[in-house]
Amino acid sequence: MTAFIRRWGALLSVAALGAIPAFGAETINLVSLVPGEGQLRDKFLATEQRLEAGWSEAVDVVLLIDGQVGTEESMAATVRRDRAQIGMLTTAGTSSVVPEMSLLMAPYLFDSFEEADFVLDNIVLDKVKALFAEKGLHFIQWIDSGWFNLFSQVPVRVPNDVVDMRMRAAGGPAARVFLQEVGADVAQLPFADLVPGLQTGLLVGGATNTSMYRTVALYELAPYVTLTRHGINPGTTFANKAWFDAQSKADQKLVMGGIATTKVLRSAVRAEDEEAVTYSAARGATIITLSDTERALWKRASANSHRILIDEIGGETAVLYDLIQEGRSAFAAGVSGTGASDTDASR
User: Domains along the chain?
Assistant: First the structure.
């Protein structure tokens, strides 16, 4: 993104958030950063229509989902200050307000989507809701961004391949700590600097989900994708708590409908994430699938990450981590008791 676009986006954000609603209509600003096409954007458009049609009084829902409000950190602050009422952000964005959320991106915290969904939905949800409430936010639902993988300009299979390699880490401490622990030379740059960094040689690679890899056409600049599947990004939809609490029960129910049901959202996003692998491969990307032995090397190399993150993030991170481990044990017991077997993160 050029400096001009960033400045123009900032001007748009001021104009959008300061817009005067139609006479007699309440304005509900909904902030996020959504690709220009695809299932997720379609769901935002459907949400706009659903809220406007079902609200108890006249309401104007304004979708600020194209970067008008700037970074995700800016969006989180905007919802907290009630200049926007609802937000849908990644874990990294949300953690700017609720730091403990950063833990959820820790490398190899979960072994499968099934395990992660069970723990997030059944074990840690009440704690997360409480953490949000302490910051003046009302938790609505989980979302998902698929697995995080490595991308690079040269082939990468094992941790030794990235030692001293200049790699960009996404926002939040988890991505940085993972790359540091496997020996990379980490650059925690804004997303807008990723493409210029690859073009100029400042960067050799980084980590992201494959949907974003496809959206930015990184297959043209870093044509190797290593399916480390080392982390998830269970972002959230949330509202300003004071605003939410002031609404009628019927309108609160509409808000709690989220962008779509969590199950539908997860399925759609994960399907697009997998489709992005095929799409990128067709345009020149080399997809590197790891053996169990190779994946174990990544897991072992980053084994200290969890303790580092607990100490660095602080707050109630240790409590959240203990809940996650309890949940993983419960999931394992349930899987062994039911005969379910699909816990392989590569699927």
Answer: 3-98+113-144+234-268 (3.40.190.170), 147-232+272-319 (3.40.190.170)
